[in-house]
Specification:
By secondary structure, this protein is α/β, with parallel strands linked by helices. It contains 19 helices and 13 strands. The strands form 3 sheets. It has an 8-stranded parallel barrel, surrounded by 7 helices. A 3-stranded mixed beta sheet has the order 6-8-9. The radius of gyration is 22 Å and the shape is globular. The termini are far apart. Bound molecules: 2-acetamido-2-deoxy-beta-D-glucopyranose (4 copies).
Length: about 525
């Protein structure tokens, strides 16, 4: 059972904290802002990226298992997540690490095929139930509140074989799965997110071949995926509302990803317009149906995809249409705004780029993405450091959808290729969290929680084990998958302990000292 004091804290964290934010600690700049009482500090992970044990104890295959076994060259290190950080066996170590960080929240995901080996609710795996029960119990005894994602990309293969999210029947299957999860774990789990980053999932997995399932149905598949993932989210939300909320009294939301879109040249109206168009067609496409007053896809997306489709000779728009009932079901179907943010791109208008597939969400949007060569690029190809973008993005979300909806940063973190002396990651966290504090105190944004991505090095999809995001280093060559805290873990623990950012707590060594490390 969840302790009643934690329930109270949670209630406070998800309701009117913004009033408190505007008066407390608001003097002296980011290093002097202290995080509000009740602010949720956490770390996040995802099942496929850490669990391993891909075929143990009757677990069914996920489409990532199937895809990577079929395409071993997909990752630069020819890796997959068959073993990963072995959290299926080492979850007690994980919980000890989370406790050591001092955070009170852990965002994890349930592997759908570990719970339902065939994806359907006629067959619930006892071993799967046992695993998540043990993990949640271990978290409880460490006083850590679980925040659970239902879908973090590892769709059961039998459902993928039916077309995955492009098939409308998935709305029902997702609702069935959500019911099983709410039934089994909802006595303890009080914060759920239905889907993780549906934009990345649909755009890269259905529109292109950058992520599994690599369908590359560009211009069509990504919109079907988006459409039915949104409806599946709404179905799970209303299921919770009707069958579980009265007793379980939890919260259900969704996690959306967003780059900040910075006009390439701030004096050019067409760049400003391009940046706004990008945000509407990438964040707004998901957020507008759920969080806006009027609901449905943003006007600009509706108009552009409709008219471009017609021009291309399609009988109907490649972007499906919601019925009035569906618009209503989606509108307001989230108790908080889960926001994942990593980096910023510079935006300018374009009618064609050689990297674009035609048609596609890219060509429908008509915006060219670049990064400033002056920004530090510490790891993955797509990743540059631009902390100011974080504050701008939080403000954009607030201005679009209002201050009433609590924002929870469900992921933020940095990619590199290195080990435990991750001084750049220390400063990334300091700088990004400082921007978040400014959004809270100087702009009045309603940010109520922050989850660092990620607890430990893991399987990073297309980048295999090459790109690292962990607060803990994992020695993937050791049979024990030994975990060691990085400098960034020590720094994050200090932020959580003092509830403020001390930019001098960990000093970056001089180049000469650094070379000796
Ligand atoms: C932070 O606050 C302390 C006292 O509350 C004050 O002495 C100090 O000057 C402040 N620092 C900054 C950078 O404003
Ligand atoms: C249920 O799942 C288990 C484990 O994957 C499998 O062995 C069994 O055949 C499944 N049962 C049914 C009825 O599909
Ligand atoms: C369920 O999955 C198991 C293995 O994961 C497989 O052996 C079995 O045939 C599946 N049953 C159905 C009905 O698909
Ligand atoms: C930005 O746009 C303005 C107005 O078009 C132009 O005068 C200026 O040269 C541009 N700056 C850069 C760096 O291109």
């Amino acid at each position: 059972m969840l302790s009643s004091s934690r329930v109270a804290l949670l209630g406070a964290a998800l309701t009117g904290l913004s009033l408190v934010c505007s008066v407390r600690g608001a003097v002296g700049g980011p290093s002097n802002y202290s995080f509000p009482d009740g602010f949720m500090f956490g770390v996040a992970t995802a099942a496929y990226q850490i669990e391993g044990a891909w075929n143990e104890d009757g677990k069914g295959e996920s489409m990532w298992d199937t895809f990577l076994h079929k395409h071993p060259d997909y990752t630069p290190d020819r890796s997959n997540a068959d073993v990963a950080a072995d959290s299926y066996h080492k979850y007690m170590d994980d919980v000890a690490m989370i406790k050591d960080l001092g955070v009170e929240y852990y965002r994890l995901s349930i592997s759908w095929p570990r719970l339902l080996p065939n994806g359907t609710d006629n067959n619930i795996s006892k071993a799967g139930v046992r695993y998540y029960r043990k993990l949640i119990k271990e978290l409880q005894s460490a006083n850590i509140t679980p925040v659970v994602t239902l879908f973090h990309w590892d769709l059961p293969t039998p459902l993928m074989d039916l077309g995955g999210w492009a098939n409308p029947i998935m709305v029902n299957y997702f609702r069935d799965y959500a019911r099983v999860a709410f039934n089994l774990f909802g006595d303890v789990v009080k914060i759920w997110t239905t889907m993780n980053e549906p934009h990345q999932h649909c755009y890269n997995g259905y529109g292109s071949d950058y992520f599994a399932p690599a369908i590359k149905s560009h211009g069509v598949g990504e919109y079907l995926c988006i459409h039915y993932i949104l409806l599946a989210h709404a179905a799970a939300y209303h299921l919770y509302d009707q069958e579980f909320r009265p007793n379980q009294k939890g919260k259900v939301g969704i996690t959306l990803d967003a780059f900040w879109a910075k006009p390439k040249n701030n004096s050019k109206p067409e760049d400003i317009e391009a940046a706004e168009r990008y945000l509407q067609m990438h964040v707004g496409l998901f957020a507008h149906p759920i969080y806006s007053k009027e609901g449905d896809y943003p006007d600009i997306a509706r108009k552009r995809v409709d008219s471009i489709s017609l021009h291309e000779g399609y009988t109907r728009s490649r972007l499906p249409t919601f019925s009035p009932e569906e618009v209503n079901a989606l509108r307001g179907s989230s108790d908080f705004f889960g926001l994942n943010h990593y980096t910023t791109f510079l935006m300018s208008p374009s009618s064609w780029e050689k990297t674009w597939l035609i048609p596609s969400l890219d060509s429908d949007t008509g915006v060219k993405l670049e990064q400033d060569a002056k920004w530090i690029k510490p790891g993955a190809e797509w990743f540059s450091i631009y902390p100011q973008g974080f504050r701008k993005l939080i403000n954009w979300v607030t201005n679009q959808y209002g201050k009433e909806i609590p924002i929870i940063i469900t992921e933020n973190g940095m990619s590199d290729f290195g080990g435990i002396n991750d001084y750049l990651r220390v400063s990334y966290y300091n700088e990004y969290m400082a921007q978040m504090l400014m959004a809270i105190y100087e702009d009045g944004c309603n940010v109520q929680g922050y989850f660092a991505w990620t607890l430990m090095d893991d399987f990073e999809w297309k980048d295999g084990y090459v790109s690292k995001f962990g607060l803990y280093y994992v020695d993937f060559d050791s049979p024990e998958k030994t975990r060691t805290p990085k400098q960034s873990a020590i720094n994050y623990r200090e932020i959580v302990r003092t509830r403020r950012i001390n930019f001098d707590f960990i000093k970056k060594p001089s180049p000469a000292q650094f070379n000796k490390l």
